[in-house]
Design brief:
The structure is a homodimer of 388-residue chains.
Chain A lengths: L3 E11 L7 H7 L4 E6 L3 H4 L2 H11 L3 E5 L8 H13 L4 E6 L1 H13 L7 H4 L11 E5 L11 E6 L4 E6 L7 E4 L9 H22 L4 H23 L4 H15 L13 H13 L3 H16 L4 H12 L6 H18 L16 H11 L10 H10 L3
Parallel strand pairs in A: 1-8, 2-3, 2-4, 4-5, 5-8
Antiparallel strand pairs in A: 6-7
């Protein structure tokens, strides 16, 4: 097992009717003027906006609103946020949304206290030393950004999607009310679940080869997601399944479930990022396409672990090692398909002649800390495996 | 799933050669005069004392020493600590040891800032509002006190063993070097493992009946402990198994793995406490005696969960539900026996005529938040089941 240091300062408030806690949490932090940041207004329809605004008013918290964060968040919105934060002298950010809104909040919270353009930090050319406090109200379980120190952003002018981590951008308080996700579409729910599964699988295949207990834990999370996302397809307002999925999403990337590992390797995200940059494909959808192919391309380098996966997740016990692994990959792909997720680049509207461009982008931006370093040629092969 | 709030401020430093980090961690906290608290001097023999003292000196940390904390920690030692803390105006406590030393540090850290006798707080007649910072260097994985807000103490004058929890007593920094446990005796290792297993089993049977993912996680921890404690019996210096066990001990009681549950019910500890008060039996040894009998006494009230346990931990698939559960309890008891742990009160030197006195003590002190409230008569029956 690797040495590790772990500390996570986020206060997680989880459960029914917890959205209204946002007011008192901000107040208790001694903050009375915040930025209220959200996406495209779905929070007007499901009552979240109303509940949050009421709680803020009741607690005497003044707020400025900024909306329009896209599903694949962009740097220009971060700049817009920073301007409002500075102009209005705001002391905190309340991010109501999923990973895109939270990551925009994180980049802006750090950017407002950074001497130069925050994009420098994404590119590894600068370091954060402070950030404005962030409070989150989660509306979709997917990226796990609600309880971690990671931030992913697209620089749309430069066609780059990059990430940074910093202890300063952990949300101070995160509210996760599973019932807030009842109104998500089937597609959003499935994309979120596949995003979480991909993070778990990455830790499992790459990071935790030396820890039995973390293998056990990650396998348990995978089985739980597989079970409950299938319930949610038919019963989007099943509270229990929403809660299971929400908990599974918080766990793998908050640090606790990756301790003893090499961190969050994000290798399949390296493969998925170009799809979102050039074709605006949601991360979950991109991952359902590329993940099985990535597994097929690399499994031989760690075959024992993939054989274990085949057994623990799909109960496969028969056949040669290769047969078992390939069967498991096929079953995973079939599972994604059964959820209605795309499983080929072609199906997602990408032309075969675009693959080289996508591979070049992925290779250029690849900052994945992975045991399998993927070069441009590897990535192209994986995209080809993902094509049909 | 139940609503929950979770926050754990402890910084966990885990791995080989981490003991020496204690000096810089204390220094970074702005503290330069501490109490160094430990047990009976085993830390002189295994190099931990030397490494810690060297690190403190190198970082210019002044320290007063206090030793002699017993395996079942007593209130008189807490009072002694408080006196030294106040007299010497110390700003922090470094607890080098297991749960007994850490819990003594916690009680003293709170007691030194409490206006009256800290025992009031254990009895539920007072509340803590601050505590001196605590730093720990763990020498035995057992109670999980290194990363939680709980403190258990015996008042030896009143024959009471009681607990309290407070956010103020989370250790600020906890150092867990699995190699520091190479020199533990087989008995200490086994007792520690059974202590951890009991905490996991309590959460599993009582707390998490509504969360699939937490059931999965707790089952994974149990299987990992069972595997690695068997390795350690023969290879006490197997780093990997020490690390697995140490990680399994930190996890179930740090809050993360009991989220969505009703907290740490500690029902079997209610049964074990009188054994330590009157017969000075180590918690792990007391638990290996009473836990299987407790299971036998209560399983019918939640039989589905016990059937699941039989399947997931011992692979039992055949027989009626009762047969499967009883078989699993027998296998658990056999497993404890195979580790050399006591499995009967008689074997531990307790007379049959003492059982009523023990039951009365357990019933009087029983503050367990449990779905099975055990009265004196229930407890007596369980002790009788545990006798031979």
């Amino acid at each position: 097992m690797n040495n590790f240091m772990f500390k996570n300062p986020t206060k997680l408030i989880f459960g029914r009717d917890t959205v209204q806690r946002i007011g008192e949490e901000v107040k208790e932090s001694g903050i009375d003027k915040v930025l209220l940041l959200y996406g495209k207004g779905s929070i007007y329809k499901n009552g979240i906006y109303e509940a949050a605004v009421k709680a803020l008013k009741e607690n005497g918290i003044e707020f400025k609103e900024l909306s329009g964060v896209k599903a694949n968040p962009e740097l220009s919105k971060v700049h817009e946020c920073i301007e409002v934060l500075k102009k209005e002298n705001l002391q905190g950010i309340i991010a109501i949304g999923g990973g895109s809104v939270i990551d925009t909040a994180k980049a802006a919270a750090a950017g407002a206290r950074y001497e130069s353009d925050i994009w420098q930090v994404f590119e590894g050319n600068g370091e954060i030393k402070e950030a404005i406090p962030i409070f989150t109200v989660l509306t979709i379980s997917s990226a796990g950004s609600e309880m971690n120190s990671c931030c992913i952003m697209t620089n749309e002018d430069e066609n780059k999607k990059m990430a940074f981590t910093s202890d300063y951008i952990y949300p101070k308080v995160s509210i996760v009310d599973p019932a807030a996700q009842f109104t998500l579409s089937k597609e959003q729910t499935v994309n979120g679940a596949i995003d979480v599964m991909s993070r778990v699988l990455e830790l499992y295949f790459e990071g935790v080869k030396n820890s039995d207990v973390m293998d056990e834990v990650l396998e348990g999370i995978l089985r739980t997601i597989i079970k409950h996302v299938q319930v949610l397809i038919n019963e989007p307002d099943n509270y229990n399944s929403r809660a299971e999925l929400a908990l599974c999403a918080v766990l793998p990337t908050n640090g606790y479930y990756s301790i003893g590992t090499k961190g969050c390797p994000l290798v399949s995200h390296q493969l998925e990022h170009p799809l979102s940059i050039f074709f605006d494909i949601a991360p979950g959808a991109g991952l359902s396409i590329v993940f099985p192919s990535w597994m097929k391309y690399v499994y031989k380098y760690n075959i024992k672990k993939f054989v274990r996966f085949a057994n623990k997740i799909f109960g496969i016990e028969q056949g040669t090692e290769d047969e078992r692994v390939l069967k498991a990959i096929e079953l995973l792909r079939d599972f994604y398909k059964s959820l209605g997720a795309p499983v080929s680049l072609k199906e997602a509207g990408i032309r075969y002649e675009d693959l080289a461009k996508l591979a070049a982008n992925a290779a250029e931006l690849g900052n994945a800390r992975t045991i399998w370093v993927l070069g441009k040629e590897d990535i192209l092969q994986i995209y080809k495996l993902s094509y049909e």
